[in-house]
């Protein structure tokens, strides 16, 4: 998980402060020393660290924080606000041109994740009912065009290519014209990267920029390269004038230095973060939510959004009816399980809960996805009658289900018991709500 070390250390400093009824200037100094070390260890740019600490100190002392009734809490509030400001304050949204198609030019070094991110953006836009054209303007990396075509096919999205012999500037121009012709909302131009920043690449990118006049120039950088990513961003920004940064591979970046320094060093906002290889592993970047996550205050908003995206509103209504009328079956249970799994790995979701860092053992908890698969297998091995009326599942049926699902009779028993308990709970709820209604009606 991203920011693991930093998060743990900052939370431990904050816990110490929170526990104090009175915070002295010496306590604050000591806490800031630890925060400073934690940030440096997370590979945050040292100038950024210095000005961050100075600001927090100044505010903590200046605002009479130390004399307030809850000094510890106040310091945490200041740290949270300053972390948010450091990462850009407000969320910086993807531009949408009044004159479609909105033109997005993707730039970055080879291997940063440019092509993958182009596909992820298409997916992100599709979720908002916007259609895009992908343009293959990387004519140097042998497999780049093919990779984009495969992505496009997976995403059911057109890909514009003129092979690898044409000038990338011409490809980009004609791609934009094509998107216009087809009345598409966005055109995403995947340009060529190099292993290192080089002038030839920059010149080509500038020529594309001049001809295409993109609405967005997004730099894709690999978070795992830490301060190198920040330096790359600085160079690209001064040469091209970026509109935003996409930080990829944050899933593998345990330190988080790039995420915390990019905005402060380059003044260029992070617009998205990549959290995996799949096309839906892209999240808009919210500095405030990220700060809360780092400080262990949770990110309930993202959690809710994920739930809303995964849960089908019609199904939810139907489920509520079934719960009320106690006609909830194992089929519904399976449905629920699948909806929850659509939200992403359970570990990531747990990490978004407030105080997750303090729950003992959570860090080492590998949420057992296998256990969920086992539950699915058990339910799938039931006959339709058994799913409707689990009461008929006697000893021999249990044995058959266990064999059929590659599990044990104990596993089957456990699931049946859980299901029974859940039903009992629903019964209580439904009786409670009936009671409530009666009262309202004056019974
Ligand atoms: P490009 O040369 O910049 O176009 O890079 P690619 O899009 O081909 O990506 C290089 C590698 O990084 C591929 O193996 C991707 O699957 C992987 N990758 C891209 N983004 C992410 C991410 O957010 N997380 C992880 N774990 N891998 C990523």
From TrEMBL:
Composed of three domains: the N-terminal N domain, which is responsible for interactions with the ribosome, the central G domain, which binds GTP, and the C-terminal M domain, which binds the RNA and the signal sequence of the RNC. It is an enzyme of class 3 (hydrolase). Belongs to the GTP-binding SRP family. SRP54 subfamily. GO terms for biological process: SRP-dependent cotranslational protein targeting to membrane. It catalyses: GTP + H2O = GDP + phosphate + H(+). It is found in: Cytoplasm. The gene is ffh. InterPro entries: AAA+_ATPase (IPR003593), P-loop_NTPase (IPR027417), Signal_recog_part_SRP54_M_sf (IPR036891), Signal_recog_particl_SRP54_hlx (IPR013822), Signal_recog_particle_SRP54_M (IPR004125), SRP (IPR004780), SRP54 (IPR022941), SRP54_GTPase_dom (IPR000897). PANTHER family: SIGNAL RECOGNITION PARTICLE 54K PROTEIN SRP54, SIGNAL RECOGNITION PARTICLE SUBUNIT SRP54. SUPFAM superfamilies: P-loop containing nucleoside triphosphate hydrolases (SSF52540), Signal peptide-binding domain (SSF47446). It comes from Thermoactinomyces daqus. This is Signal recognition particle protein. Its EC number is 3.6.5.4. It holds the Pfam family SRP54.
């Amino acid at each position: 998980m991203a920011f693991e070390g930093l998060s743990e250390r900052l939370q431990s400093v904050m816990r110490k402060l929170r526990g104090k009824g009175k915070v002295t200037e010496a306590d604050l100094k000591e806490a800031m020393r630890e925060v400073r070390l934690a940030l440096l260890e997370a590979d945050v740019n040292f100038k950024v660290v210095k000005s961050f600490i100075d600001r927090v100190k100044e505010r903590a002392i200046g605002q009479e924080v130390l004399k307030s009734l809850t000094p510890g809490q106040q310091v945490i509030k200041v740290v949270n606000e300053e972390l948010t400001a450091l990462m850009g304050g407000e969320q910086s949204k993807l531009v949408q041109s009044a004159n479609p198609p909105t033109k997005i030019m993707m730039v970055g070094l080879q291997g940063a994740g440019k092509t993958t991110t182009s596909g992820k953006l298409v997916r992100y836009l599709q979720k908002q009912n916007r259609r895009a054209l992908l343009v293959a303007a990387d004519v140097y990396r042998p497999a780049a065009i093919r990779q984009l075509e495969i992505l496009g096919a997976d995403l059911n999205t057109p890909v514009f290519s003129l092979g690898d012999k044409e000038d990338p500037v011409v490809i980009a121009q004609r791609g934009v014209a094509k998107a216009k012709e087809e009345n598409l909302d966005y055109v995403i131009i995947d340009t060529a990267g190099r292993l290192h920043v080089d002038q030839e690449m920059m010149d080509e990118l500038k020529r594309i920029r001049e001809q295409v006049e993109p609405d967005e120039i997004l730099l894709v950088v690999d978070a795992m390269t830490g301060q190198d990513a920040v330096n790359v961003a600085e160079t690209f920004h001064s040469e091209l004038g970026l509109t935003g940064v996409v930080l990829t591979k944050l899933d593998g970046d345990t330190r988080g230095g790039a995420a915390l320094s990019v905005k402060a060093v380059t003044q260029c906002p992070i617009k998205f973060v990549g959290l995996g290889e799949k096309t839906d592993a892209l999240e808009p970047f919210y500095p405030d939510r990220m700060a809360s996550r780092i400080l262990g205050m949770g990110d309930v908003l993202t959690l809710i959004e994920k739930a809303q995206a995964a849960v089908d509103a019609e199904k939810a209504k139907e489920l509520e009816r079934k719960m009320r009328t106690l006609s909830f079956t194992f089929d519904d249970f399976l449905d629920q399980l699948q909806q929850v799994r659509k939200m992403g790995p359970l570990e990531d979701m747990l990490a978004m809960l407030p105080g997750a860092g303090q729950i003992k053992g959570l860090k080492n908890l590998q949420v057992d996805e296998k256990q969920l698969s086992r539950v699915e297998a058990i339910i799938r091995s039931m006959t339709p009658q058994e799913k409707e009326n689990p009461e008929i599942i006697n000893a021999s049926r249990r044995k058959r289900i266990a064999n059929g699902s590659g599990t044990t009779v104990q596993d089957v028993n456990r699931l049946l018991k859980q299901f029974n308990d859940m039903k009992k709970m629903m019964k209580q709820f439904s009786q409670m709500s009936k009671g409530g209604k009666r009262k309202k009606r004056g019974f």
